[in-house]
Amino acid sequence: MSRGTWFYRGALAGWTAEFCLLMVWYLWLAPPPAALRAPVLLAVVLPWLLPLRGLLRRRRYTIAWSSLLVLAYFIHGILAAAAPPPERWLGLVETGLAVGYFTCAVMFVRRTRSAPAAQQG
Prior knowledge:
By secondary structure, the chain is an all-alpha fold. Helix content is 75%, strand content 0%. The protein has 6 helices and no strands. It is elongated and about 50 Å long.
């Protein structure tokens, strides 16, 4: 296997799990009022879809900036974990998935960078 394959697969799995969690959270487990459902889904899920194309094509640059995007979901998970009990466990899961994605994405970017140019004497 090439360098970083396991980290790429981990990042892809983390991205997919985070997306599924957000959809299940806002459509089934703790949906917002009907009038706010579409705006909440657009505000929360749409940004997470932005890196999908580059992530599927294994582009280092996309994976690098998406590791910064996931920090917003990490903060959202921390805030939800401080909420009343029905949403607390969802926030803890979101925080864990965000940390997992961030770790795999950063390690993938580090493992796949070009080798430094040979020093000339």
